[in-house]
Write a structure and sequence with these properties.
The protein is α+β, with helices and mostly antiparallel strands. It has 6 helices and 10 strands. The chain starts with a helix and ends in a 6-residue tail after the last helix. The relative contact order is 0.22.
Length: 205
């Protein structure tokens, strides 16, 4: 019921996301030889994997300096993708620019094709990505989830992420009032976070 309410509001007068941060210095991540950056000449290939992106949209993102981290299986199939911005980027759901400072990376639009779900490939790719970002000098990652999507909390917690703010807008017609409110607690409907000794350490899957 709560998710339905916010979905209706999100189409009319109110949208929000919960912004998370991960301090990479506090976490242990491991590289994975099957993960790599998507190449510029693979836009059409990735568009075939992701049903909500066209090849032109992929090319435009890559041209804008946004990169895509992929996990490729031995047979050559792209089994997971995750976009990474290291400069200010527009959050499409809110149509607002998120500031991304030096030493930070914003992670978004994580996607696993249906045929490969249930194999923890997203966690594996995320661990390898954060190892790569740490080697690049990135100290902190940012990401967003829909607050009412309770299934998104366990992966965020297991990756050492913690919520830092609600971001969003109120609106009527074309008018928008954007907001950013700090949060020190998890939403009451979120699953209980695991102890830090478990949540802040990822091992290779």
């Amino acid at each position: 019921m709560l998710a339905l309410l916010f979905r209706v509001l999100g189409e009319t007068v109110y949208r929000r996301l919960l912004l998370f941060e991960t301090d990479l210095a506090r976490c242990r991540f491991e590289p994975d030889a099957r993960c790599r950056w998507l190449r510029d000449d693979e836009a059409e290939r990735y568009a075939l994997v992701h049903p909500l992106l066209t090849a032109e949209q992929v090319r435009r993102r890559l041209a804008d300096g946004v990169r895509c981290w992929v996990l490729e299986l031995p047979e050559g199939a792209i089994a997971h993708g995750l976009w990474v911005a290291t400069a200010p980027v527009v959050i499409e759901y809110l149509d607002v620019q998120l500031p991304v400072a030096a030493g930070e990376a914003y992670l978004f639009q994580s996607f696993t094709p249906a045929a490969y779900r249930g194999r923890r490939l997203a966690s594996r790719a995320l661990s390898a990505l954060k190892a790569q970002l740490g080697a690049m000098g990135i100290r902190r990652t940012l990401s967003c989830i829909l607050p009412d999507n309770w299934l998104a909390y366990p992966p965020a917690f297991s990756a050492g992420a913690r919520p830092i703010a609600y971001i969003g807008w109120y609106g009527v017609g074309p008018w928008r009032r954007h907001f950013r409110r700090p949060t020190r607690r998890f939403p009451w409907y979120a699953p209980k976070r695991r102890p830090a000794t478990e949540a802040e350490h990822i091992t290779k899957l």
